[in-house]
Amino acid sequence: MSAIPSRTNRSPLRMNKDVTALIPDFPFHYANYLQEAEGRPLGSVAAANHGQKVLIVGAGAAGLVAAYEALRMGLHPVVVEASDRLGGRLYAKVQGDPGSEVLCELGAMRFPVSGKALFHYFRKVGMTANSTDFPNPGTAAAISTVVDYQGEKVYYEVDGNPAFPKPQEYVDLENQFFDEFLEHYHFAAMEAAMSEGSIDQQKIKELWESVLKPATGTSGDDVSFYAALLQNSGWTKAEIDLFGQIGFGTGGWNTDYPNSILELLRVLYTGLDADHQLMFDGSSSLPQRLWSKTPGELGDTQVYWPEGTTVEALSREVFADPFHKEVRHIERQPDGSFRVLITDTRTNTQHRQEFASVVYTPHVRILDKLRYSGTPQNLPAMDSLLPQPTWEAIMYTHYMQSAKIFAATQRPFWNDPVAANQQRKMSITLSDRLTRGTYLVDYSKSTGTYKGSGIFLSYTWNDDALKFLGDRPDPLPQHVDLCTNLLDNIYPAIDLNEQYSTVNPFVEHNWEDQPLYLGAFKMNLPGQYEYQRRIFSQFMSGIDTGKPDRFILAGDDVSWTAGWAEGAVTTALNAVNKLAVCFGGGSLPGNPGPVESWESLKPIELG
Hints:
Layout: H1 30-37, E1 43-44, E2 53-57, H2 61-72, E3 76-80, E4 92-95, E5 102-105, E6 111-112, H3 116-124, E7 131-133, E8 144-149, E9 152-157, H4 168-181, H5 187-193, H6 201-212, H7 225-232, H8 237-246, H9 261-269, E10 276-279, H10 285-292, H11 311-318, E11 325-332, E12 338-344, E13 349-355, E14 357-360, H12 364-370, H13 379-383, H14 388-395, E15 399-400, E16 402-409, E17 428-431, E18 437-442, E19 453-461, H15 462-466, H16 479-490, E20 506-510, E21 521-522, H17 529-536, E22 551-553, H18 565-582, E23 586-587, H19 598-601
């Protein structure tokens, strides 16, 4: 879901590198941790604690991974979800005519193969067999790309049509970015230390510390992406503006210019910006299958629970309908358990329930509001869930905005054959005007249910996304019309209105307008490293005193790489390891988890 675009010529796969997303702040190898377990539960809990009820707040990727793994260890996960669906920001919505439906991915839609913990679960639930390369601008999967910049249109294709080569200017930008700019931040050495066959966790930490605490000059934490380009790229401002619009010809970077350079470096080092996959079954299939399938069906073993037990069944034992259940208050009890107030938002019925532990996965922005809900007497109890420095970090968490406008089409007309020297009817499009990013998706090669096609008329971030809030009534144009008018101007030979499906053809989604999210995902600004360290490190609370805290934060904005589902999965694994420790156990022998690996890999403190 991240706003960071995909590189093309310099992607790890094109360079024959098997990069694993080992986050430099805490380079724990989550994929190895999962693989070494070989289908066994990731840890154990004391037999006396089998069946202990753990509340999992939120049914997104983090919540369902945590719940599924907690079940396998013999705990009793109870998932509650404030909305009416599973998935969170894994949200694939069916659009189009019956028989030719297409999925509109309203949240995450492109998944980097370097995110190997996520792909562990994609493979487990059977999604990777029905996937394809995502059609990012400038990639072979896109076939063709149009850059509409400063009133001029540039059309090019890659990997197959020498009649329309990628502009040399774009190639030069990409090469200069990697060979010159990123080498100020040890990119080649860091990428090598994250590549299978040469992984070196301590080298990663050493290189990263030199970025965070350089021998001379300003700390990396204090510099924005834009300021770093001014200091180290050698480009003119005009070249920085061009790079901001097109990246490497794969998508603009300028929505990230205000963010910390550290945010960009983490994603580039780890290959999360490249080699993306589109899941034909829909991103929502991951949480749905972890919810409804047994460990046995997914090739895993479990303890305590009888064969046939699912996360759904255990959740419904406590709440017959776990949806529309909004957590309104959490109060720690003297024995370390929690009394939780849960409201059914349809009936306004309140439930008070005791849980041995709580794993909280929604945006921490929502948690910050939650602490003030109810009566003034509730505030001390909520405040006590976290130390004040962590609440401060949560309060100042910065979120990106995102908007998508999607139209199902009657067919993927952009794939129609053309003569050798003829441009295609329509292309993946980058514009410096209203639509910004326009993506074309074709599900005709799917082996699953959905075979249709569609156009993301606009995919925008931050200020560009805010332009799609507050739609106005007729006779002023609606947002779909605004996008169509612009795209018809770029492609005058096409009447897009004739291409749309006739059944529910349009959908518009703004994550900042959603009451349960209030933003797309976290993205740290300069100076916010310590805030992020506090939030991420929360899962270790109480470990050093021998009284592990059973209130645990997880979710992608708790991770160091928000906006990527990999971060949701890895923080869920942190929470699962912590649950094992909380209930008298830990990781499997010979396979230490993130809790047991903390001291050697923990994030650097900047003070």
